[in-house]
Each structure stands twice: as structure tokens, then as C-alpha cells.
Design a protein that fits this description.
Elements lengths: L20 H10 L5 E3 H9 L5 H13 L3 E3 L4 E4 L1 H15 L9 E6 L6 H13 L3 E4 L2 E5 L8 H4 L2 E6 L4 H8 L2 H17 L8 H15 L16 H25 L1
């Protein structure tokens, strides 16, 4: 039996979208902790990518209307709704914290039938966000080195239990394409090492690189070390990015203050 997916399925990883006003605004807020910025800084950031102030303000208004952002009335905007939830997952992905592993796995089995396409899509996204991977239709698994809590609406349709596969290493190879994730991580490491973040000329390319790293970290399945290749680049990528990002944030803060 072949797994239904051959690529990492965790988190929000996806090819880099075109840089629209909304994507720049969302990425800017996603990269902040807490995820909020003044409108003047948001508008100036979009200008780095040739986006006019009017387009930026229209995009902000649409994000507020769509429940993706909120404004406190003083000119500061903060992530809301599903983007706020994404920022929380992004922070957890960046930290990469896991628990001990004793050989146990989570096994989630979909026990309902006849769901609509929307319900099935929501269920799939929720299980993916929990870093479970689909072995076959309706059967999802991952090592139990992370806590898995399913929201109530989903929990009624999914039975969550534990299991102990006889060959965990072989199961990992069926569920995740670790080679592809590793190759991409090594490429991002090289990009971080090549881009000096200490000058204003790094703001635009650094913004895109930062978003790419954070997206990729969300695709890390966060497996136990025992089930990973010895040269797994997850920790080096996180450590390098943390150091690079601290310098980039200093550049961004100085540039914002001077504007």
C-alpha cells in the first residue's frame, strides 16, 4: 500500500505566492511578535515592493473586513482570525519544541462518512496543522512526541488513539519526503549565509527570504531525533535563522525609525 502523499504535509508550507499588497501585509504581521504594526510602517513596507499607499490601505481595509486583521483605532493593525492562528503555528514551528519519544504513535481514524467537500477540507487542514500525515484515506499518523488535541467539532468525527508500528523508520519514509525537505532547508541555509541583513539594501530580499524560511519551518514534521537522518538540518536552520533575523529586525527597526 502506498501513502497518499509523498511530500511533507505538515504546517502551511506552499510555494511562494506572488507579492500582492495583502501577502506583504500578512507576511509583515506574521513576522512580528506580537503580530501588530503601525499603519505607517506597513504602508512603507509595501512600498519596498512597488505597492502604492492607496493599494496598501485598501488591502488593510479588506483584511479587517474579512476578519484577518483588526485595528485599535490608533493606527495600529494586528492579525486576527485564521491569520492569528497561523502566526501561533508559525511560532511553534520556529521554536521546534518536542517532547520525549517512547516509540508510541498517534493514530487518528476518520469515523464518519458522507461529509461535504468543505467539511472534508477543513478536517484535512486541521489534521495537517497537527502535523499528522495521511497513511491512507481516513487514517492519519505521527510519532507521539507532540501533543495532539483535536477541536471539538473535529473530535466527534475522528477517533484518536495510540499505536506502536513494528518498523517506525519505514513508516516515516512512507509518510514524509524528508530528502526534499532537507534539500530545501540546506538551500535556505545557504541563502541566509549569503545575504547580509545589516543594511537597508537587504530589506526587500530579506523580507522574502524570511517569509520563505518561516514557511519551510512549518513543513518540518518535527519527528523524534531517533527517526531522522543524522544530518537533519532542522536545528541548524532554526539557529541560523534566529541569529540572522535578530540582525534583520534591527535593520528594519532603524529603517522604520528613519522614515
Amino acid at each position: 500500500m502506498q501513502p497518499r502523499n509523498a511530500t511533507p504535509k505538515t504546517g502551511d508550507a506552499e510555494p511562494a505566492p506572488p507579492l500582492t499588497a495583502r501577502s506583504v501585509l500578512a507576511s509583515a504581521l506574521l513576522g512580528m511578535d506580537p503580530p501588530e504594526l503601525p499603519v505607517a510602517q506597513l504602508v512603507r513596507l509595501t512600498g519596498l515592493f512597488g505597492i502604492s499607499e492607496n493599494r496598501a490601505r485598501v488591502a488593510l481595509s479588506r483584511m479587517v473586513a474579512g476578519g484577518e486583521a483588526s485595528s485599535d483605532g490608533t493606527g495600529r493593525y494586528r492579525l486576527a482570525g485564521h491569520l492569528a492562528a497561523r502566526q501561533s503555528r508559525q511560532s511553534a514551528s520556529r521554536a521546534g519544541t518536542t517532547a520525549s519519544y517512547d516509540g508510541g504513535w498517534w493514530l487518528a481514524v476518520v469515523t464518519t462518512t458522507g461529509s461535504s467537500a468543505d467539511v472534508r477540507g477543513t478536517r484535512r487542514r486541521t489534521l495537517t496543522y497537527a502535523r499528522l500525515a495521511e497513511l491512507r484515506e481516513g487514517v492519519w499518523m505521527r510519532p507521539a512526541n507532540l501533543t495532539v488535541r483535536l477541536p471539538d467539532p473535529l473530535g466527534a468525527a475522528v477517533e484518536l488513539m495510540t499505536a506502536r508500528p513494528p518498523d517506525a523508520g519505514a513508516l516515516v519514509a512512507r509518510l514524509w519526503d524528508l530528502h526534499t525537505w532537507s534539500d530545501r532547508a540546506l538551500g535556505l541555509l545557504r541563502d541566509l549565509q549569503a545575504l547580509d541583513p545589516d543594511g537597508p539594501e537587504a530589506l526587500a530580499p530579506g523580507f522574502e527570504l524570511s517569509a520563505a524560511v518561516l514557511r519551510h519551518l512549518q513543513a518540518d514534521p518535527l519527528l523524534p531525533p531517533e527517526l531522522l537522518p543524522a544530518d537533519w538540518p532542522g536545528s541548524p536552520l532554526r539557529a541560523t535563522y534566529d541569529q540572522w533575523d535578530a540582525r534583520y529586525r534591527t535593520t528594519l527597526r532603524d529603517w522604520s525609525r528613519d522614515g
